Amino acid sequence: MRGRRPNELEAWEAAALIARRELSAEALLLACLERIAARESAVRAFAALDADAALARARALDAGPLRGPLHGLPLGVKDLFDTADLPTSYGTAIHAGHRPAADAAAVALCLEAGAVLVGKTETTELATMQPAPTRNPHDAARSPGGSSSGSVAAVADGMLPIALGTQTAGSIIRPAAYCGIVGYKPSLGRVPRAGIKLQCESMDTAGGFGRSVRDVALLGSVLLGDERLRFGDELFAPRIGLAPTPWWPQADADVQAVWARAVATLAPLASCADAALPAGFDDLVPLQKRLMFHEAARSLSHERVRHRERLSPGLRAMLDEGLAIPVTQYQADLVAAADWKRRIDALFDDHDLLLAPSTTGEAPPIDSTGDPLFCRPWSLLGLPCVHLPFARGASGLPVGLQVVGRHGDDHRLLAAAHWVHQRLIA
Amino acid sequence: MRGRRPNELEAWEAAALIARRELSAEALLLACLERIAARESAVRAFAALDADAALARARALDAGPLRGPLHGLPLGVKDLFDTADLPTSYGTAIHAGHRPAADAAAVALCLEAGAVLVGKTETTELATMQPAPTRNPHDAARSPGGSSSGSVAAVADGMLPIALGTQTAGSIIRPAAYCGIVGYKPSLGRVPRAGIKLQCESMDTAGGFGRSVRDVALLGSVLLGDERLRFGDELFAPRIGLAPTPWWPQADADVQAVWARAVATLAPLASCADAALPAGFDDLVPLQKRLMFHEAARSLSHERVRHRERLSPGLRAMLDEGLAIPVTQYQADLVAAADWKRRIDALFDDHDLLLAPSTTGEAPPIDSTGDPLFCRPWSLLGLPCVHLPFARGASGLPVGLQVVGRHGDDHRLLAAAHWVHQRLIA
Fold first, then answer.
1. Does A189 reach chain B within 8 Å, measured CB to CB?
2. Domain limits of chain A?
3. Comparing C-alpha atoms, which of A144, A134, A80, A145 is closest to residue A107?
4. Structure ipTM
5. pTM for the full model?
6. How many interface pairs between A and B have CB atoms less than 8 angstroms apart?
7. How is domain A6-229 classified at the CATH fold level?
8. Measured between CB atoms, which of B100, B192, B304 is closest to A201?
9. pLDDT (tens digit per residue) in A4-18
């Protein structure tokens, strides 16, 4: 542990120490709870917290056999996932105090693997754009990003080693970038969504956060039920496709600087070539928005119809806009999205991963969760993405880039992401 | 109404009378409630019922403007859909008395369109194989089929004009066949699943029941948000592909007789040709089972881990079997399923619909919900299906066939199904 407090360890390190009984789940949890006690009033990462239940669970784990790869790791869960033992309000007062019947499947899988549920983390209103109360741990005047606001802030601030989030447009990668941690959005369709408040089934994806690629690989191995994710980090030089994307002019000077630095670092070490994104790639952003708005307007029908006056004006407008999209347009958009998925797959014959911007810049002021622009195309395509933090912008806030892999090749993407990240932070 | 009681009307007829104010929502509901009072103790279709709330709603609808295409229609909802105003237990004592925060999206859409929620209908244990208490209205010693047991029984018995169900293997088409009503499973991915207890995201699909194709088209138009479904019943002679499927030898004499009768009726009126199912089509049944078992084992992790002793032995065994399937097999199965979907699509260049068996025979005894064999391939392929009842078997119980359409062409399938059904019942 080399002088670091347990709550500052990477998750995979803490898990290894606990597995060797060199660290107790209780000691790790107590360090996390101490950090939470010191910082929560400033950061406001949690929508619900049950320290007593978590302590009882940690002690029980310490007294018993190893349960699985997350044994003893304190876990934060975005308040968009149902939990049987903690209230779940999906980021809206409409559902304040709701107690679900069951844990969401992703939560149950983590608990089965030995995780310790510490609390529910704040999300934006129904995982859309209205900000959560959470502050960016690096600067209280800045947004942590959304919609997985509390999960990222808790991990970035040393309150928890790992946490769960979801992404529909940019709700994992963007907040991970703003808070300077690793975020992992798995391939669409590989993590069960039972017990998650669904908004847009074409894209909603559960994933998670940690301090290193190994951390999210460990968590991802449980979410996907695929142990290759945590044993796939052999070193190799991946073929990197450079994909600044058609929206590159909207990347600010900070992002352009980290891009140049990343390319300069990686080009001597690995094959780096421009990725030939298919013509019309810029259609993906409006396509992603139409699908998301239309599906959200239908999936959130209960709130839209029965609690209209309790929705924020922005969400009301988004749902109205989605409802106004003709179903024939929606159906054509689904077909177009499926077609794009087939076309993009061929790109990965030439590249093991794509390097792409995560955000337009550093974290914005707290009245916005920032622009998911650079995440929208990859969310639409259902591709696995990992945000890699490795630099600071002009205001001293975290900046980084994301890597994007072939659909279903999450274990290969994580291995390559680890290789790339090690070099970028070296 | 020509002497029929309101609860015996087809849903589209009742909706038209209500829209013209020739029938009140209250009178229709009262007729349904009277039938429920007379028959529920024998049929046991309902897991929860709120007559007072339904009456208040019906009176409010009668006093106000038309809300939508389902204005005033009493609706039953399978107890796998969340409802904010009625308890939801997903067919298991584990969740007895649970009260969800919100209506499932499909329920909210029906209520927005003017439906009157009457009750929650019985489902099998977590929508799997352990029977619900519901009896077949035609013979109390027989199963109504599952998992949408209560919804089918209520519609078949004249308790309700329409009801919601879900299908993963054969949970809409099979019970519709056993009870002799029309069942409609939409194309995968076209009805939002928010608020449904998910079991297998590769296949779980919400749909519904009525007494005619027009009834399910009316209901489907709301579920899919596509009014072409209810205005698409122009008469035309569809090109019918005959698809007895490789499992034909398992169809009993009753099914073979209705098949022969259907072909004899339709062949003089429309183009009927053998559908050339791709080689290897018989792989689809084991493929469907593996995907379903593996996804169910992960989606139902909360119940599998925390309430193992309260699951039926059959469900425990199914989840254990699913969990033992290697993730690499599962991922290969997902790729194979996607490939099959592409291959099957071409079949619909030559046929407007496929005619196929719905079940192996009449409804079985009540200790089983029957075999979903003939539904599994179409569920795996995500294709829209409509069960058409038109005959009786050797025991006097309903028998019929299903028609299957191209993915996404639900409005064309329903128009063709209406054409076919009119001729089969003529």
1. yes
2. 6-229
3. A80
4. 0.97
5. 0.98
6. 124
7. Amidase signature (AS) enzymes (3.90.1300)
8. B192
9. 899 999 999 999 999
